């Protein structure tokens, strides 16, 4: 996706995947937003080589300030969540802490055999309305993260944003994927990836709980 819509705060439940006349999810329409939906994405690889300290781009390589106490608070709030709006509030705050352009939580639906968007933040309503279920065999970062149970990174550049897709792993398999979109190379920062991985691990504990059951069936 070459350009992003103007940032607009949006949180809560995304619409369920549209159905065809036969009652099956429609996967033919390209999903948006973000680079996590591009085809032929590759798993995470080490960052680019170090640059000279006097290089004007050095600011891009400085450590990203991660508030560990803030992260602990987010995880605690997720552990106590009893309603979908409480989960949405945590994801909205996490997106701001990471300076993400947008965030979408995808939850696995065994009936449709697809990852469905249950929460989003940072995208305009008309973009969220275009979201479609992602089949597990799709060739994009979201499906790759789900199949491999490992984080997938999509590199951004001066024209396009980058993304991280982090799986929500459980003892019974992958429950979903947390996808975050970034400008300015945020997807390549180890600190950002670590934060997203910890958040996804906490989200995975919600599998089968009332908040996610309500969100997935809304």
Number of domains: 1
Low-confidence segments, given as residue ranges, are 1-31, 41-62
What is the radius of gyration? 17 Å
Q: Describe the global form.
A: globular
Report the portion of residues in β strands: 15-25%
In order across it, which strands form the biggest sheet?
3-2-1-6-5-4
- Helix percent reads 25-40%
Tell me what you see in this structure.
- With 218 residues, the chain is an alpha+beta fold.
- The protein has a single domain (35-40, 66-217), classed as GAF domain (Beta-Lactamase, 2-Layer Sandwich), CATH 3.30.450.
- The protein has helices spanning 68-80, 84-97, 125-128, 141-148, 190-204, 210-217, and strands at 102-109, 114-121, 134-135, 152-154, 162-170, 173-182.
- Helix 1 runs antiparallel to helix 2 and helix 2 crosses helix 6 (210-217).
């Amino acid at each position: 996706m070459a350009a992003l819509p103007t940032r607009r705060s949006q949180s809560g439940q995304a619409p369920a995947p549209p159905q065809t006349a036969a009652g099956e999810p429609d996967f033919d329409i390209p999903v948006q937003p973000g680079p996590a939906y591009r085809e032929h994405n590759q798993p995470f690889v080490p960052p680019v080589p170090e640059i000279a300290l006097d290089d004007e781009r050095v600011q891009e390589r400085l450590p990203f300030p991660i508030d560990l106490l803030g992260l602990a608070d987010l995880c605690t709030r997720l552990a106590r969540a009893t309603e979908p709006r409480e989960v949405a509030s945590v994801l909205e705050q996490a997106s701001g802490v990471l300076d993400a352009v947008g965030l979408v939580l995808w939850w696995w639906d065994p009936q449709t055999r697809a990852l469905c968007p249950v929460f989003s933040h940072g995208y305009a309503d008309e973009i969220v309305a275009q979201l479609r279920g992602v089949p597990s065999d799709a060739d994009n970062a979201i499906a790759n993260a789900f199949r491999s149970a490992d984080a997938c990174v999509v590199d951004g550049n001066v024209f396009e944003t980058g993304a991280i897709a982090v799986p929500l792993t459980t003892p019974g398999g992958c429950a979903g994927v947390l996808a975050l979109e970034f400008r300015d190379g945020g997807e390549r920062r180890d600190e950002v990836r670590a934060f997203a991985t910890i958040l996804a691990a906490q989200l995975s504990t919600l599998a089968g709980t009332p908040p996610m059951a309500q969100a997935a069936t809304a």
